[in-house]
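Hey, sorry to bother you again with one of my protein questions. I've been puzzling over a protein and I'd love to understand its fold better. Take your time with it, there's no hurry, and the full record follows here:
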Amino acid sequence: MGAFYINFCLENIEYDGEFYSGKFSSPDAGVYCEVLYDRVTKKFVEIWDNSKLVEDILPIAIYWLDWKLEKMDIYVKRKVRLATKK
C-alpha cells in the first residue's frame, strides 16, 4: 500500500535544475532517510541511511518541495518544514 505522511520535514536540501538531495524525516512514522530525486524523470535515484525498507518509505510527497521552492523562489540550501492538516 505504501506510506502516508501527515507531518514530515525535508532538511539540508540541495537543489539544481535536475536534482534534489536532502534528508527526509517523519518522526511520527519513525521514518528517516537521505534522498536523491531526479526532477526530470520524477523518480528517486537513490535512498540511503534509511530507518525502514525503501518499499515501506515510498511514496515521499516530493511535489510539496517543488511547490514550496517555486512559491518561495528558493534555490539554496535551506530547511523547509512541510506539513498537512488532517
